[in-house]
Amino acid sequence: MRTVQIKLLLLSIVAGLLLFSTLLFSQSKDSIFDASLDLILEERPIEFDSISNYLRSFRRDTALMQKAAKLFEKEEYLEGASYATNFLGSSYLHYSKYEEALDKFSLAMDYASRAGQRIQKAVILNKVGVVYRRTNRIRSSLDHHQQARVLLSQIKPRSRTVNLNIAKSENSIGNCYTILNQHELSIPHFEKAFELEKSLNNKLGMAINYQNIGHANEVLGHTDKAYDNYSASLALNEEIDSELGKIICTNSLARVKVIRNELAESAQMVKPLIPRVKALNDNFHTALVLLNYGNIQTKLGNFEDARPHLEASLKLGLDHNLSFAVIESYERLSALEAAVGNHPAALSYLGLAKENNDKVVNDRNNQYINDLVFKYDSEKSKEQIQELSSENQSVKDKLKTNQILFGSLFGGALIFGGLIFAVFIQRQKRKDQEIINLKREHQIKTLESLIKGEEQERNRIAKDLHDGLNGDLSAIKFKLNKITESSDVNVSEVIDMIDQSCQQVRNISHNLIPPSLENFDLIEATDEFCSKMNDAHEEFIHFQNFGDKLQLDKKSEVNIFRIIQELITNSVKHANASEISVQIVKRDSILQITVEDDGKGFKPSLSKSTGIGLKNIKSRVDYLGAELDFSSDNNGASYFIEIDTFNPHDN
Known about the structure:
Shape: flat
Structural class: alpha+beta
């Protein structure tokens, strides 16, 4: 009976500590966001960069952006309403919901126009241009990017944000001309964009425009210029260690070598790219690499090696609506069949290539003509409005003369009173500003304490567990050993229980503050955690790391590690899984985390649960400005998290 009581007491202590720590570490993103809204409404910044400083970390959360937009509209804070609504439109654009995106961009443009925000208007114009380009409305896309460029060029002096968006406009205009196969017109715009990126020392932007210029020269037959630009782009991508950029440039250089008939060397360049690009899960560029390799092997006469790669490219094109991959795959398969003497199959593939190409061209031309007609009708309507305006101008001039006379008399009387009132207002503003500064300083300190408090409390509890409770348990064990030596009472079972409790306390302490995370980095900490879980549980946990080298600040590493730790623990405790897979993939600025198990899954309705673990995961995901997606069925559960570690402008 005494043994059972001791066991229950120890288990109660450990369970109570776990519950307390979990409740303590669960922080509310909503409270931080609400505090940010209070600050921004007090300050009411009007510059784009200033507004972004407050809302940047929340911009991917559509619910919070919707809340901000409604509040700012209610408070008649037009600059903030335009910013929040613009990012709602960007979310729809990201998920290819183009009509919804256009509705939000239109509303954001109305706010920006009423507030006189030129930078914000230009940002929205570029976004609308992207929508039109993706829906093959090239004429409208060109118009919007050109309007954005003109508007930005009028802003003096030019900030970094202004120059980045001018570069974006120039690059987008070049892309429009590329789609229209007008490569001579695209090159000057890519070159202007490059010079701007160079002045800002934005090496990623420089690399992208080198690549675009190289592609245009390749299509025009200027292979030497193409090779030089591809080489320059590759050098920059190697300098910034962009895996995707290195793959794109190497594949492009190999294409030029094919044109030069350097087939063996080009094959050696492209073959290693296939597993690398597949590891990035980038269907667009995977199709490009497969097409290039299949074409090279066809020219070398290795038809059995060429065929599966061309067929794989065709499947990617059909599955993911990549029209270029479908058309070029059919063309390459036609050339392959002709080379082996299967002329009926070659003719069939060629017909399919022509059919798909005609459809793309016809759709694009029809949309281009429709855009021109719409533009003509719009300009005609503007001319009619201008004629009506000129007829009314003479009447307005007479009214204006009378208003000036009356205003002069009335204004003189107001000037004297206004001077006295201005002195009073100036004094009152100084007092109000002092109050605002004190409030803002207090709120900023509150926000910082919310963010720092969690890890500090983890450190404290970990030390208390290790130095306090663990020491007490060791003392109990020592005394029980003395009792065993001096009496016949068998307390070995109690000693074993205390050993197990000591081990549990050490595990809890290390989980609260893993030494590997303090001394090394996220990858090593995750690897060590998975290894320890493998030693302690039946489930097999497989950890993989791919892509670019990971460089994060310590706060981000801690939050990401806590998310992975919680997901693995949930799978071990609740899923009844036999295998758990953990992957961390870094591509350029995008960090992707996947945790999957083959357990019993859970009902989708549980995603709205108020459970502490899930709320803690969502809170950390929101704090990181990340996106969380998960699915579950009888075959297991899968969690996917994407984090943008750096937000360069979208070329």
